[in-house]
Give the backbone structure.
Amino acid sequence: MHNAAMDALGLNWRYMAFDVKPDELRAAMNGARAMRFAGLNLTVPHKLLALDMVDALDDSARIWGAVNTVRFESRLNGQWAPIDQCPQEDSEPIRSVGFNTDADAVIRSIREDLTFELHGSNVLLLGAGGAGRVAALKLAAEGVAQLFLVNRTTSKAEAIAREIRERFPLVSATVGYPAGKVDLALNATSLGLKPNDPLPWDEGRFAIDQAAAAYDMVYRPAETPFLQSARQAGARTANGLGMLLYQGAAAFELWTGRPAPVDVMLRALQEAIYG
Ligand code: ATR
């Protein structure tokens, strides 16, 4: 999606993938800086390791405790600026700045791909791993009214509920299934990735027709059993491809300073993932 976006804007840039061992991440990041890379994306487990390796952290990375995007900056008229906008002067230092574009992407995808209004809504969130925790806190920050948290390991859901009650006292965060209807059921577990995975909820305690809309962070397969059953029950559905798209679009804008051609990026993603 990034190469398609660069081509669409006529940028003489390339986005490439590198496998880097965790204990060589620092060396790899220093190498990228020495080669005047515009920036980097990082994935698991590097998102956490990079917190201590960048020269500066944007609030987005500090708040969410993870770096998925790095931008290299140098000095332009005494101010830090994206490196490609700066003249190449040997005397000027280069710094790395860590950002997180994942957290906003979840919310943007739910809002745009499901046309869902989060404020005041009731949400069942399945999963309390890394992605589930960020989603829960972002949903609370967006002003959902009620959040029902369910996770195989209950203690993790309880820890998130406590954190929400402390940070967002207006949001009702409880652990367990809702008795009645919810506006949205959101899967943040990894169930659905593999063909024989069970549904991500307990069918004895929750029926999919209790949800008016369903969002699955899994995007491969395009329609998980969860989304299929939700669609058949009449719910609006969307998968997590939008999360991947929007975190990429935000990173693209951080590096290039130009609006991301989101349609071009989406088409490239769909082609690469679904053929
Ligand atoms: P991510 O960064 O994608 O959130 P993660 O932190 O490993 O990855 O979280 C995976 C989520 O899927 C967790 O909610 C996990 O439940 P646990 O916290 O109990 O481990 C959930 N999950 C994974 N496999 C599962 C399974 N077989 N049944 C139920 N939940 C599962």
In short: The first helix runs from residue 2 to 8.
